[in-house]
Amino acid sequence: MNNIREIDASLITDAVKDLCIKANKKLPEDLEQLIRSSPSLEKNELCLSVLTDLGANLDAACRLDIPICQDTGMAVIFLDIGQDVHITGFGIEDAVNEGVRQGYEQGYLRKSVVSDPLRRVNSGDNTPAVIHISIVPGDKIKIMAAPKGFGSENMSRLKMFTPSSTTDDIIGFVTDSVKTAGGSPCPPIILGVG
What we know:
Layout: E1 5-8, H1 9-25, H2 29-37, H3 45-64, E2 74-82, E3 85-88, H4 92-106, E4 114-116, E5 121-122, E6 130-136, E7 141-148, H5 150-153, H6 167-181
Parallel strand pairs: 1-3, 2-6
Antiparallel strand pairs: 2-7, 4-5
């Protein structure tokens, strides 16, 4: 029989707080290396300029200990919770949202989440977070923070295709979406199709 491991919710709050700050100030190493190596492959002058500026921006953010982008986004938190974990103290959603609240306050991160999208009233603390929970084997909790900036997100498009849609229909929608977005999304622009 497995032993249940108890984890105090305040530890989750502290981890989320630290991750919110770190995620806004430091890119994952593989993404940073991709941005830094891309100018050597670029032939278009405008694209080369943007890629060079992105590298300089990463340097400035590190040197000044500030967020990489002024749009510090909505906190998206991914939790892999071991099935042999019992969280004590208070609820997991409350623990995560308190961590976001503290992280955005203590990290001096811009709070841009609205609590009611129709009234456009800012929540004042960047909550609620988007929380994804997976129950996994084990007695540990793995937490990942991924701030989702709104500069690129506002160019997203969604379409539900009918079963009779063709590959050409899908390709047409994707290419039309890219043309419609143009230069409006914040760079680097990443195209994701699911």
